[in-house]
Design a protein that fits this description.
357 residues; 14 strands; binds S-adenosyl-L-homocysteine
Length: 357
């Protein structure tokens, strides 16, 4: 049995042709799975019955089982899934309040968009100090079908709202599982599948340079985020071991090339940790590091505390001063509102808690 979601539209068309079925059925199958949420071939009522039976004999549609679920008071929902081989992964739905253009005032003008945050690997090799995902080491890459399973689950669990954005900020390093992530991204983006615009899909990396170089050659306008978290090599190598392999000078050079090649902005994620990287000297170093990048933005994130570690957020006034320093230096800076803090929503926290129980 094969996961049908591992097939691109073209691959499914070829498979159907090899069975003697017309290829246009592939688009119908895609619509059933990705748009209508069908989880049985038998329910695909516009397909010939023998084709449905054939599909049923060769493929399965869903490969995830829900193991746990946590709802935050702010509407964030975190899902823990068990894969076919028993490994656990996490995905999160994060509602974003959005104004309907042209409408003002309360009068029903608020509509809810939802960002789905997905994992790309079971566990993580990169062992960043502030991130719970790496605590239990690396298990394996997710297949493209498993990544799509997460998106399907997130989408099908919404009622009045729509899944409008997908971010690869769950467990794992998407650029370390490049082919499967890109295959999934193309289906998330495809008009006959999830139809989520490429600009609403974000790939977040800890700075895997070969992956960034590959990404800039793709005909896809996805957003790129880089988890920076420190603006000097000594500190960054300490909290993000990946920096020993891909140090800041090489990373920033690669960012210049990416921006020149794609004309697209890069968002630098910067977690503010008390006593580590949140003083004004650190802010100054950050300004210097990014100053020549033509299209860059900094997203500040007060750290989600990691139990039994020194990872705690600075005071609100320290966060404000840091932000202010960047703003006055001309940096495009935003402050991410922490979501789901009451449900262990920081990377990997739910899985770690579950595995310890
Ligand atoms: N490997 C990729 C994808 C994982 S997302 C990457 O490194 O970008 C990593 C992001 O998770 C970080 O940039 C940060 O936004 C978030 N994160 C991880 N640990 C956190 C913590 N303790 N507090 C707040 N955000 C955290």
């Amino acid at each position: 049995m094969q996961d049908i979601k591992e097939l691109s539209l073209k691959e499914l068309e070829e498979r159907l042709l090899s069975w003697g079925s017309p290829k246009y059925h592939a688009k119908q199958i895609f619509a059933w799975i990705y748009q209508k949420g069908a989880c049985e071939f038998s329910s695909m009522s516009d397909l010939p019955v023998p084709l449905r039976k054939n599909l049923d004999n060769k493929f399965y549609i869903l490969g995830l089982e829900l193991a746990d679920l946590q709802k935050s008071s702010d509407g964030t929902i975190k899902f823990l899934f068990e894969l076919n081989d028993g490994n656990l992964i996490e995905a999160v739905n994060i509602p974003v309040a959005k104004r309907t253009p042209g409408l003002i005032g309360e009068a029903g003008a608020r509509r809810c968009a939802v960002t789905g945050c997905v994992s790309s690997q079971a566990g993580c090799k990169f062992a960043c100090e502030f991130c719970a995902s790496g605590l239990k080491g690396f298990k394996r890459n997710l297949t493209s079908g498993e990544i799509l399973d997460e998106v399907l689950y997130l989408k099908n669990n919404l009622r009045a709202t729509q899944l409008t954005h997908v971010v690869f900020m769950g467990t794992g390093e998407p650029l370390d599982n490049y082919d499967n992530v890109l295959k999934a991204v193309r289906i998330i983006n495809s008009a006959v599948a999830f139809n989520i615009g490429a600009r609403r899909i974000t790939i977040s990396t800890c700075g895997v340079i070969p992956g960034i170089k590959r990404l800039q050659e793709e005909d896809l306008q996805v957003e790129l985020s880089i988890s920076l978290h420190a603006a000097e090599d000594k500190l960054r190598s300490k909290i993000m071991p990946v920096n020993q392999k891909y140090p800041l000078a090489d990373l920033i050079k690669c960012c210049h090339e990416y921006i020149d090649r794609t004309n697209r902005q890069i968002t630098f994620e910067y977690i503010l940790v008390k006593g580590l990287n949140s003083d004004l000297l650190s802010a100054q170093k950050l300004v210097m590091l990014l100053k020549d990048l033509r299209l860059a933005k900094v997203n500040l994130i007060p750290a989600n505390p990691i139990p039994k570690s020194k990872i705690i957020p600075p005071s609100a006034s320290e966060v404000e001063s840091f932000k202010d320093y960047l703003f006055k230096a001309g940096v495009n800076v935003t402050l991410r509102r922490e979501r789901g803090q009451d449900i262990d929503a920081a990377c990997g926290q739910l899985r770690v808690k579950y595995e310890q129980d």
